[in-house]
Amino acid sequence: MPDQRKSRLLLDTHVWIWAVEGEREALSDRAIEEIDEASREGRILISAISVWEVAMLESKGRISLTQPVEDWVMAALRGPGVRLLELSPSIAVQSTRLPGAPPSDPADRILIAGARTQGARLVTCDQSLLDYAASGHVQTLSGRR
């Protein structure tokens, strides 16, 4: 069985924001340790849907970033070990055909499909995603403290 700690990590949008903004206290020690290791080894994925979510959250005033959103996104995507996971046709289609009872949020479904297609673990604090993972349909790393 492959070492899960060496798999790619797909950061949920809130985890990505917290990591970039230095809000490490929001994440578990294990999540921080694994994100740091994956960053050093070039195993961090950021979904294109997370770029959209960050821009939407910022445009609605739900988050405040340390710089203009376009600059923030470009800088965050240049972070160490980070690679953009584009929204491929395969991910888009798979997001509509997830097994079991996946969350209804389209962005969450795209994140799940992205993690599944990449063989990545989804790093999240979102309980609905963690509950879905408990059914065995996606691998996660809980960021919850």
Brief summary of the model shown:
With 145 residues, the chain is of the alpha/beta class. It contains seven helices and five strands.
Key attributes of the depicted protein:
145 residues; Rossmann fold; single chain; globular; 5 strands; 5-stranded parallel sheet; alpha/beta
Can you tell me about this structure?
The protein has helices at 13-21, 29-40, 48-59, 69-77, 89-94, 106-118, 127-134, and strands at 9-11, 44-47, 82-85, 121-124, 140-142. It is an alpha/beta fold and 145 residues long. It has a single domain, classed as Rossmann fold, CATH 3.40.50.1010. A five-stranded parallel β-sheet has the order 3-2-1-4-5. Strand 4 (121-124), helix 7 and strand 5 form a beta-alpha-beta unit. The longest helix has 13 residues, at 106-118. It is globular, with a radius of gyration of 14 Å. The mean pLDDT is 96.
How are the elements arranged and paired?
Elements: E1 9-11, H1 13-21, H2 29-40, E2 44-47, H3 48-59, H4 69-77, E3 82-85, H5 89-94, H6 106-118, E4 121-124, H7 127-134, E5 140-142
Parallel strand pairs: 1-2, 1-4, 2-3, 4-5
